[in-house]
Design goal:
Strand 1 (about 5) and strand 2 (about 10-20) form a beta hairpin. The radius of gyration is 24 Å and the shape is elongated. It has 9 helices and 5 strands. It has helices at about 20-50, 55-75, 80-85, 100-115, 120-125, 130-135, 175-195, 195-210, 220-235, and strands at about 5, 10-20, 85-90, 140-150, 155.
Length: about 240
Amino acid sequence: MQAVSIQTSQNIQLDYELAGIGERILAFVIDILIILSINLVLSFIFSKTGMKSIALNVIIYIISYLYRFICEATCNGQTVGKMALSIKVVKIDGSSPSLPSYFLRMVMEVFDFFIVGLAVVLIILTRKGQRLGDLVAGTTVVKMRKVSATNVQNKAIMDKVDESYEPVFFEASHLRDHEVRLIKAALKAFREDANPVPIERLEEKLKEKYNIHSELPTVKFLYTLLRDHTYYMTR
């Protein structure tokens, strides 16, 4: 399994599995079918208006050329084809792709897709599965599900959270690294010694500091905070 590690601004290293060449090709085929369908619909509509063929062809070409750029820029790095295959465009440096990044990918499609086999060869040969457009824009394409998340500062693997997870406490996004370590240490002490004092005192202080109101049992409250913190730090 090939994976790419991306470090975010919160010192969290996310490990994503690279999208396979088959998945990327299939997503591309789906997008091409959508573009062809749009072309057919526009051709039918414009034919009823008597619009000249040259103007029609120019409009259809522009729409077809901008389709992937518009989709990726407005749908968090995904076209309809990528959504169907659960893959997306990400920046190698951990930041969200910007409009210039998506634009560069679009511009380089001329070389990637019209020089037969170039995109496929580069995706296979490059370490991070990048076609020419990705190399220029500093992006790649990954599967939506993260392999793991690591707190770079603490060198600790963070708890995994499903993509469908719904966080309970937004305040968990503000937890500091030392507070996360304290929660884990207190929970470990409770598991090993059944001593409720550390977790109860920690619960009290965290609720007071972050103005959290919760009726959850202490242990469940602290585990929920950890899961919520992981959720926010890995998004």
